[in-house]
Amino acid sequence: MTEPRSDELTATPNNEGVDEAVAAARRVINALLHAGDNTTAEMRPVADRLNAVAEYLESHAPSIDERLVDMWAGEGVTRHDPITGPENAIAPPLALTGHDDGSISGEVTLGLPYQGPPGYVHGGVSAMLLDHTLGVANWWGGTSGVTARLTVDYHHPTPLFTPLTVTGKQVRVEGRKIWTEGSITANGVHTVTTEGFFIAKELPRPR
Amino acid sequence: MTEPRSDELTATPNNEGVDEAVAAARRVINALLHAGDNTTAEMRPVADRLNAVAEYLESHAPSIDERLVDMWAGEGVTRHDPITGPENAIAPPLALTGHDDGSISGEVTLGLPYQGPPGYVHGGVSAMLLDHTLGVANWWGGTSGVTARLTVDYHHPTPLFTPLTVTGKQVRVEGRKIWTEGSITANGVHTVTTEGFFIAKELPRPR
């Protein structure tokens, strides 16, 4: 694995237009939920317009196998994961930064697409953000692995529409075993904490 | 809480066009990742077209407060969560069905937006699917709760582009404490199993 060259743990774009298009897709996802099913918006023409965009993109896409090779080219951070990926409209996205003490952190504010209980972040979304953050913390810490066990403790509901701080830090490595911790903080309170147990290995990249 | 009236644990739409529009948005999310950042597609015009759709929807949307009341109207299953929600383009969506033995299950095939390791489902996505499935299993079992601790064990990588079975079952209720289990199965093998510990309460719905 190459050493991190920067404390910004998100890859830079190859094509600025892609990031704009994905940001616009995020806005559509949010607006669909915001308008909802009692809106006066005409939804069938919206479906037609979105399907036309999808058709255009699909007609300019390589095969899935070619795309998998391309998206995994290089050995460092990637741009497509569902948490930090600038190319993945499902990702909020969370932007993570590495620190000198071995920890990493990022800020993110989550809206309607990430809702669980009324007005709060879905517990599964918190688990997803933390699992990914622990994985990146392992990479930043110098020993990457695959998750063997993730334990997530929910102390308080995590609010939507509020800046959240997500942190992770590799705390121990013994042979191939890795232990890593993380948290989500809102308004100065740890709402969710997590412990991950990882095994040091990486699945092969397609070539 | 109202009793489930059907074994289909996804609400029916108020407006068929919404589901079509959200399905088209899912197709856009997928196509953006499939086309990627080395495509010959012109991404800036794609961004413009998507922003125009978002503007149209936003101009027909109520205030967030009104929308939150509306989306939480009724006491049963909802349509907006990020796992099963037909109105949420982030949701694959997973469709869950309740069974007479108290368990629930659903099938889903995940594509590029849900990728973690090359060709496999992101561990955080598996955790998200399972957290939600355990929550619905609690509702089906008769005692709903909020997640206090979620433990997720990863036994094997979970493949993309492969039908997955997601299951959940409430196994024990003692006073306000609830224990619930679940799994993800691919090609006949349990790839991920989970145990959830819940506290029986529900956060208030906005009115």
Please provide a written account of the structure.
- Two copies of one chain form a homodimer.
- The first copy, chain A, has 207 residues and is of the alpha+beta class.
- Chain A has a domain of 105 residues: Thiol Ester Dehydrase, Chain A, CATH 3.10.129.10.
- Helices cover 31% and strands 26% of the residues of chain A.
- The first copy, chain A, is built from four helices and six strands.
- In chain A, strands 1-2-4-5-6-3 form a six-stranded antiparallel sheet, covered by helices on one side.
- The longest helix of chain A has 20 residues.
- The radius of gyration of chain A is 19 Å and the shape is globular.
- Chain A starts with 15 loop residues before the first helix and ends in an 8-residue tail after the last strand.
- In chain A, 52% of the residues are buried.
- The N terminus of chain A is likely disordered.
- At the A-B interface, helix 1, helix 2, helix 3, helix 4 and strand 3 of A face helix 1, helix 2, helix 3, helix 4 and strand 3 of B.
- Strand 3 of chain A pairs antiparallel with strand 3 of chain B.
